[in-house]
Specification:
The protein is an all-alpha fold and 107 residues long. It is 88% helix and 0% strand.
């Protein structure tokens, strides 16, 4: 699970970097779009890891709820990004990064 959370945290950080490139380069939009898919996949991997740890008896159902909540936030983030609502998209990205770092520190 620690690897899944670390991967998720890294992909969210890279999304922040690619958001900066989005403003300054021609390839930033493509990079941010690809990164969004990778970040969403990392969030799904976190859910899978939490479920597997819980089913095998090594994890708490609380981790499954946290991972599922994070996947819901990632889904909202994707929808807000597609809809071009930066006033909510950017703060939600910061919140997601903070929550992911917190989850990584707790694990």
């Amino acid at each position: 699970m620690r690897i899944a959370i670390a991967l998720q945290t890294l992909t969210i950080f890279l999304q922040a970097v690619s958001a900066g490139l989005l403003l300054t380069s021609s390839y930033g939009e493509t990079l941010h779009g690809v990164g969004a898919r990778v970040m969403y996949g990392a969030s799904m991997l976190y859910v899978l890891a939490a479920v597997l740890a819980w089913k095998r008896g090594g994890g708490s159902p609380r981790h499954v709820r946290h991972a599922s909540g994070f996947l819901a936030l990632a889904s909202a983030q994707v929808v807000l990004g597609i809809a071009h609502v930066p006033s909510v998209h950017l703060p939600l990205g910061v919140l997601m990064f903070d929550l992911s770092v917190l989850a990584l520190a707790r694990r």
